[in-house]
Amino acid sequence: MNDRSNFVLLTFGRGSAALREGLSVAQRIGDTLWVANDETTSLERLTIQRAAPGDGVICDEHQSFPLMAYLDLPLPEPDEEIDIEGLAYDPDQGYLWVVGSHSLKRKEAEADKPAQKNIKRLSTVEADGNRFLLARIPVVQQHDSHELAWEVAGGERTPAQLHGNALGNDLTREIALDDQLRDFLRIPGKDNGFDIEGMAVIGSRLLLGLRGPVLRGWTVLLEIEPELEADSSDTLVLKKIGPEGRRYRKHFFELDGLGVRDLCVSGKDLLILAGPTMDLDGPVRVFRWRGGFADGEELVVFSEQLEAVLEVPFGHGDDHAEGMCLFGRGEGGGEVLLIVYDAAAQSRKRGELGVEGDLFILK
Fold it and tell me: Which domains does the chain possess?
């Protein structure tokens, strides 16, 4: 197992302590670190400070960016979560992409309720309309920092989102026609149902990693290519890129029976953070797939074609690795990977507003 080489201390602003409890994504842009709590409707920006040798890296100067200020959310209320599970930056186009889980949820049983009420709760499946979000927002550099923008260069770049509503979007409508995946749209994410967790930008395309379904040990990555709808500046549609005119491609990866928790690009390689598809603690691993994707092909990638480069520690009922991003390079030149956690353990909390993420040097 790889021990962490150091840590990052994320410190949020006053009144925002709850954000540290459930971090689901991480993305570095210059000297800023962007994260999100999956129970909110905002992105959080922190400034990365220099650290003395041997000390953890401090990320503070917290600023929150409510997504409803840039996007048309189906349920535009602060308490109607997006379940943000993917964040990826496109430096060539200057967009920050964000995606919700697109999953259903099942109510949990509660210890203080009688059996029949809990049975009813466990029978209740709900859809949160904001979870069907896939969008891009312009990023601009301002005063040695980066921030989200309404428009850039007189409207040359503007926020835009995939066509949809509170019941679904163009992607789920396409998946509803897929013989392999359509039945999983009706199953909650933590029951091995359809659940997006992880996103990466590959040129003009996006890769969406699925936590579920895992099909006989095989997890799925979806490849899509969003583009602006004709005569629109704020609505995205999906190009036809797949076999038989489909608007997506499917790629199958053998990840030791695990599902995707996050994705990030390392040069021409793809890093995959993988964990259980069901509501379990572990195991959690990072895989490297060398070489990237070939245009126009759907792929089946066996475990022998992947490198398991990191075993990620996990807790018992807490410390679930959910987000990762490349954070820099170590003294020996190795890549430094930042991992942040949902259900943060008490041991990684600092003071009233801080929480630690782990840094690992990849060999």
Answer: 6-362 (2.115.10)
